[in-house]
Amino acid sequence: MSFEDEINHTFFAEQYFVKPTSTQKLSINELIGIAEKSQKAKVIGLKVYNAADRSVEISLAAKEKTNAETRKPKTEDKKGRRPGYLIYINPYNGKILQSVKSGDSFFKKVEMIHRFLLSKKGGIGNYVISYSTLFFFFILLTGIILWWPKSNKALKNRLKIKWDGKQKRLVHDLHVTLGFYSSLVLIVVVATGLVMAFPSINSAIFRITKSKLESPQPPKSKVVADIEPLDFENFSQIVESTAKNWKFYTLRFPKENDDVISVSVLEKGSLTHKVDTYYFDQYTGKNLGSLAFADKSLGQRIRSYVKPIHTGEIYGLPTKILAFIICLLTITFPVTGVMMWLSRTKKTKGAA
């Protein structure tokens, strides 16, 4: 999961990247029409990159069908949700590069295993993962307490691995010394996992910072009789002409007649979670306000760092590599721990 983007962009490059041509890109309306026709679904949002070699990502939801007998909406989801799709499309020629049903991607399944053991939020798998994370956090804290030496001389020795020592000493050092260095990072990773696993811990961030959990409600569009909403092409042009140095923007379409067009923009060089959101009247295109990342409450800003820190993507590739190495090292600790325990068990039996 740390390298989700890198893996996807390497093995599925044909859906994320296109070959720029001398021809002008198709309009947003043309791309929307192609996407809706391909799935007979309604577009609910799109993601456009500033880079010339990136595809456009279009999100769709299946059109609502009504049951003739009950007069209630028919859905394919037990929770009453309409199936969704994510379509990758070439902006130069309108060719559909890939169509993925929501929840069917490989990394979405990996995430469901990681968070819920393929269960659901509030299910048994969710509780297993949540309390396993809590126990792991407890083990890390007690491990550092047990590790901490009584003198500075002992501390100096424990910070080094004796590579030329005997097997027993090497196993001990790999477990204790590497365990200490890894724990410094793991405590942060596991703590951010606890924030996502337990709503009470998540809420504590907002209580401590005296911040509101919910973001301010977006403004509303002014509905005027006999006036149709503006073309979505208009809003893309507004964003691309006013945003200074944007990397990508995500445009979300309104669900209700008085909803606004919501546009989230990420500037080049910004951390992935530092997006600014703008609201536009869907009938006039007037800018009704914005919610910049800097204007969010302290609690919301702190909470936005949780997932990037947890996955290692906070500062890009260097922190992803660090998180990956630490996770690999974590696998070795149960092995070296069992080896140390077996060695002590044999020694005890021999003494008896």
What does this structure look like?
Helix content is 47%, strand content 16%. The strands form two sheets. An eight-stranded antiparallel β-sheet has the order 6-5-2-1-7-8-9-10. Strands 3-4 form a two-stranded antiparallel sheet. The protein is built from twelve helices and ten strands. Strand 5 and strand 6 form a beta hairpin. The protein is an alpha+beta fold and 352 residues long.
Keywords:
two-stranded antiparallel sheet, 8-stranded antiparallel sheet, 352 residues, 47% helix, alpha+beta, 16% strand
The N- and C-terminal alpha carbons lie at a distance of: 49 Å
Describe the strand arrangement of the main beta sheet, using strand numbers.
6-5-2-1-7-8-9-10
* Secondary structural class: alpha+beta
The count of β-strands is 10
Query: Low-confidence spans: pLDDT under 50, at least 5 residues?
Result: none
For the largest beta-sheet, the strand count, sense and barrel status come to: 8 strands, antiparallel
Computed Rg: 26 Å
SSE series = HHHEEEEEEHHHHHHEEEEHHH
Shape label = elongated
